[in-house]
Design brief:
alpha/beta, five-stranded parallel β-sheet, 15 helices, disordered N terminus
């Protein structure tokens, strides 16, 4: 697929962050300084209030002077899936709208798990109201599922295949030889001991459930029922599917079970990224509170100097000013996207 308008020096791809990147304070500085971002956060917050009966702004941001213990408790609560996904969606969608107001429009978009909902809403595949409802239902259903764990593993494909059992499934394919596998806690504990004994690089992920595995089947059924009543449209900006690892097709848009599959099946992010890291120059901008997906771009086997990547918001709270960092990201993507981004 040819993406680049003739007037642009390169493609621009938006990357929408997935779960695990959430942090207390994310986006607060930009909220206070950028009216378009603030207006969209407020709109999302009011829509989510109808489904969650809370103000998600109060969950994301604490009052000045909050103690270390209060911040720790707020971070733990923000890690609960029913709240994590709505807050991430709000930040990501609002960033997309703010960037549009700054004349930064992507050639393509890809999200990671819940980030795909942010991409779909930003590409106007569904209305904001319907997107919020679907995210709220998805988040609650996944939170209510049987708890489990995900483990990031770096190993050759044949080794990864040997780790899979009836209880341990492939959940995420981030890059060649870099995946997340998971299942029930007991099975993951056993797997962790085996990985340690074999000297296989691994890390327990900051999630409460084994997303994209069999434990999500009940949640997938709930989402399928909700999605049946939501009108879907072809994306106004090309979007890459996590389910297929390729461009959203007319069949995907028309499939009432698509968003159920998106919960249950593995996230094929690596295949999607392959479509963007090509022989043509592309600048990647991550929309979310971290630089997780930026790392996947910079580590891609075909990444060269023609593929540059940066996060929109600072990857950690307190290290940079939100607004200064975001404005620097905009200046880079508009003025010199084929050059390395600023530090």
């Amino acid at each position: 697929m040819q993406l680049t308008p003739s007037s642009n020096p390169c493609d621009i791809a938006f990357l929408f962050t997935g779960q695990g990147s959430q942090r207390v304070g994310m986006g607060r500085g930009l909220y206070e300084a950028a009216p378009v971002f603030r207006d969209n956060v407020d709109r999302c917050a009011e829509l989510f209030r109808e489904h969650l009966d809370i103000d998600i702004r109060a969950a994301m941001w604490l009052d000045d002077g909050a103690s270390e213990e209060e911040t720790k408790q707020a971070q733990a609560r923000l890690g609960e899936t029913w709240l994590t996904q709505p807050t991430l969606f709000t930040i990501e969608y609002s960033l997309a709208r703010w960037l549009a107001s700054e004349s930064v429009v992507p050639s393509a978009m890809i999200g990671h798990s819940v980030g795909e909902l942010s991409a779909a809403a930003s590409a106007e595949m569904m209305s904001l109201e319907d997107s919020v409802r679907l995210v709220a239902i998805r988040a609650a259903a996944m939170f209510a599922a049987e708890p489990g764990a995900l483990i990031a593993v770096i190993a050759p494909d044949d080794v990864i295949a040997s780790l899979l059992t009836d209880d341990i499934e492939l959940a995420v394919l981030n890059a060649p030889g870099s995946v997340a596998i998971g299942g029930p806690f007991e099975a993951c504990d056993t797997l962790t001991r085996s990985l340690e004994e074999q000297g296989i690089t691994h890390r327990r992920l900051r999630t409460s459930h084994a997303f994209h595995t069999a434990s999500m089947e009940g949640a997938a059924a709930e989402v399928a029922e909700a999605a049946r009543s939501i009108p879907l449209s072809a994306p106004k900006i090309p979007v890459i599917s996590n389910v297929t690892g390729t461009w959203f097709s007319a069949e995907d848009v028309a499939d009432p079970l698509y968003w159920a599959k998106q919960i249950r099946q593995p996230v094929r992010f690596a295949a999607g990224l392959d479509l963007l890291v090509t022989d043509d120059p592309c600048a990647f901008l991550e929309l979310g509170p971290a630089a997780t997906l930026v790392g996947l771009v910079t580590q891609h086997p075909r990444q060269t100097e023609i593929h540059q990547a940066r996060s929109t918001l600072p990857p950690r709270t307190g290290q940079w000013d939100d607004t200064e960092y975001a404005n620097a990201s905009v200046a880079w993507i508009k003025e010199s996207p084929t050059s390395p981004p600023p530090d």
